[in-house]
User: Which sequence fits this backbone?
């Protein structure tokens, strides 16, 4: 679901080893030129650039080896030009040894930091993969596709979430976005998804289901056992969510939107947002909104596609700072079904942002299939 993150560090080792040719070539060039230069010209101080450059991309062992090679090259220069005990070359050797040791320690610290970061990414990714289970491609009369795009600019993962549950009358789907990032956001997403999966079958009314979800989120945010500093941060936490109920036998969908971007309805190439007349505040904040969490019905006919998404999609910017025009890019691209639509949007979104998302993004496309005659 967050593909490639833990592997990036491993896959980059081979190109890094190839880069060792650069400091080695630098040592050879400086050594040869220094030997051939006039007696008044001393290029030995430039040798420190070799281990310094190495420390920027390689580990401590490679940096130490390059540093030792630079010291050996300086000793060769000193022997050829004068002698090892020459005062000028002696100070150059001592300085080179000390600076090589310093940049080697820097490389060791950087490597430890990269290892810790990789481990953190692995743990966070594993946790999110457990929380965010893949959606089935077919549920009742619905065909479903989903995609999760992880942000490339940071190690922390976000709290985007989605899930589907089958009931006796139809299918219920939730998509949401937890305020914040990291493992705490994953924990909040797990709390909401667990409550949804457990209650979607028991709550006959969609309003009752969302009320239950609100109570679950609010009770967690008000946990008296939380540390005081954490409680202050939790006071600003909330989850935006759109909860949808799609009956099998009616060409409708029922929606409650809790502060989430409105889903898009695609019908015969035309795109329209499912705007609520009475939108609800985000989960965890409904006590301030005075909303009754009322569901609204929208026509959802055979061949229609409902597109749910998180704000990481519509807030993605290109180099000019322009937001991604999701509705424009959806129009005319849904004729081949939800899988083709999301494949197109994924490619187009990554092209829009130049290959690097600033925030996690999730999309779920749901198509009502024609009922057999």
Assistant:
């Amino acid at each position: 679901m967050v593909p490639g993150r833990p592997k990036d560090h491993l896959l980059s080792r081979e190109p890094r080893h190839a880069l060792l040719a650069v400091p080695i070539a630098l040592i050879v060039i400086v050594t040869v030129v220094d030997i051939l230069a006039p007696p008044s010209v001393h290029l030995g101080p430039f040798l420190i650039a070799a281990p310094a450059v190495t420390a920027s991309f390689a580990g401590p062992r490679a940096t130490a080896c390059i540093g030792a090679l630079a010291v050996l090259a300086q000793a060769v220069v000193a022997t050829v030009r004068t002698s090892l005990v020459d005062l000028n070359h002696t100070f150059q050797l001592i300085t080179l040894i000390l600076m090589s040791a310093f940049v080697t320690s820097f490389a060791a610290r950087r490597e430890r930091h990269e290892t810790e970061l990789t481990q953190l990414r692995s743990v966070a990714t594993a946790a999110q993969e457990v929380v965010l289970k893949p959606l089935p491609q077919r549920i009742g009369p619905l065909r479903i596709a989903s995609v999760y795009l992880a942000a490339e600019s940071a190690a922390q993962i976000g709290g985007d979430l989605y899930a589907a549950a089958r009931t006796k009358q139809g299918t219920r789907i939730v998509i949401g976005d937890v305020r914040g990032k990291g493992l705490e956001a994953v924990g909040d997403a797990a709390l909401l998804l667990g409550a949804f999966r457990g209650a979607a079958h028991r709550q006959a009314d969609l309003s009752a289901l969302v009320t239950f979800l609100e109570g679950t989120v609010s009770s967690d945010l008000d946990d008296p056992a939380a540390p005081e500093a954490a409680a202050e941060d939790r006071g600003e936490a909330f989850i935006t969510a759109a909860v949808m109920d799609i009956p099998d036998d009616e060409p409708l969908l029922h929606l409650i939107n809790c502060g989430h971007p409105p889903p898009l309805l695609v019908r015969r190439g035309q795109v329209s947002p499912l705007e609520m007349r009475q939108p609800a505040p985000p989960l965890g904040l409904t006590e301030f909104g005075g909303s009754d969490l009322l569901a609204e019905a929208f026509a959802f006919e055979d061949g229609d596609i409902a597109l749910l998404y998180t704000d990481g999609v519509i807030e993605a910017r290109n180099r000019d700072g322009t937001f991604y025009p999701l509705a424009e890019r959806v129009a005319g691209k849904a004729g081949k079904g939800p899988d083709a639509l999301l494949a197109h949007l994924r490619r187009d979104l990554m092209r829009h942002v130049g290959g690097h998302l600033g925030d996690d993004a999730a999309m779920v496309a749901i198509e009502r299939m024609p009922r057999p005659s």
